[in-house]
């Protein structure tokens, strides 16, 4: 019975990181049509951060962290949430959600290249094939005539790539940094510190602040989804899977999320994809597959 329950939990956890994370592109796109991007992200992460710390307290986890851990939390929170997510949401003003999810799927490629530069790790044959396919897929995506004629789209694409780079470097940094051992405590502090920085950024850019009562119903629903499901449930499921199944299986979310995001963007937002975009997505996701399925070196 315990084994059966464990399998059920694993299935639901995979559904969470596939569907929920893939859906966040849609809900961010909906929310950013009415709310300023940094204001949106600050509300999301501050609320989720406090809720996560409450959960940690209920689980009787110590919230005390050292000065070094606090500094590393600030750095990782900036790389992941302030720049990696906050600027990404800003770029969604100029790029379709499904298209943006494809660009974000290049993260394993960036992580691999960063590890090559930082740790001087040699690339395996599968990794080299994956990098070549990934670069070619990115070229097919951004070289389309419809994009090349739009300066705003090009700016959005460029900023998304910088966000992916920030998130990728954050992944490498966190793997080496001294952070609180408890997952809830570490995540909670990252979200709260990132939320504070995002509020300062929002004020600095003179963004409009709107009370939740003035938001449309669809934006209220989107924010609720992003906080409860996108920031808490899916991230918890991700952590659970890392302890329950192989990292290779968990990493499959890198090429499943874009498929979910593209379908939702097409169905709910009438986003269109050209033949070149479809071909590019197949090439790009195949490259990601080669990277995430390579043998792990000891």
From TrEMBL:
Keywords: Membrane, Transmembrane, Transmembrane helix. The keyword Transmembrane helix applies. InterPro entries: AA-Vitamin_Transporters (IPR050638), EamA_dom (IPR000620), EmrE-like (IPR037185). Its main location: membrane. GO terms for cellular component: membrane. It is a multi-pass membrane protein. This is EamA family transporter. It comes from Polaribacter filamentus.
């Amino acid at each position: 019975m315990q084994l059966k329950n464990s399998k059920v939990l694993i299935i639901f956890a995979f559904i969470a990181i596939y569907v929920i994370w893939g859906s966040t592109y849609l809900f961010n796109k909906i929310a950013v049509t009415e709310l300023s991007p940094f204001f949106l992200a600050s509300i999301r992460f501050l609320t989720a951060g406090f809720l996560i710390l409450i959960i940690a307290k209920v689980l009787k986890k110590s919230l005390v962290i050292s000065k070094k851990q606090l500094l590393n939390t600030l750095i990782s929170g900036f790389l992941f949430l302030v720049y990696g997510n906050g600027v990404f949401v800003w770029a969604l003003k100029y790029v379709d959600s499904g298209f943006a999810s494809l660009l974000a799927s290049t993260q394993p490629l960036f992580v691999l290249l960063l590890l090559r530069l930082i740790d001087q790790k040699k690339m395996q044959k599968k990794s080299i094939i994956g990098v070549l396919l990934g670069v070619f897929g990115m070229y097919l995506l951004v070289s389309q005539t419809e994009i090349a004629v739009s300066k705003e789209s090009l700016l959005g694409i460029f900023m998304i790539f910088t966000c992916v780079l920030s998130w990728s470097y954050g992944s490498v940094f966190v793997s080496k940094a001294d952070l609180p051992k408890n997952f809830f405590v570490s995540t909670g502090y990252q979200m709260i510190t990132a939320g504070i920085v995002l509020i300062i950024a929002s004020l600095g850019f003179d963004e409009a602040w709107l009370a939740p009562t003035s938001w449309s119903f669809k934006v209220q629903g989107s924010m609720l989804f992003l906080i409860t499901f996108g920031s808490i449930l899916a991230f918890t499921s991700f952590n659970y899977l890392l302890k329950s199944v192989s990292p290779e299986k968990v990493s499959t979310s890198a090429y499943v999320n874009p498929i979910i995001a593209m379908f939702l963007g097409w169905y709910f937002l009438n986003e269109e994809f050209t033949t070149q975009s479809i071909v590019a997505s197949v090439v790009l996701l195949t490259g990601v597959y080669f990277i995430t399925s390579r043998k792990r070196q000891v």
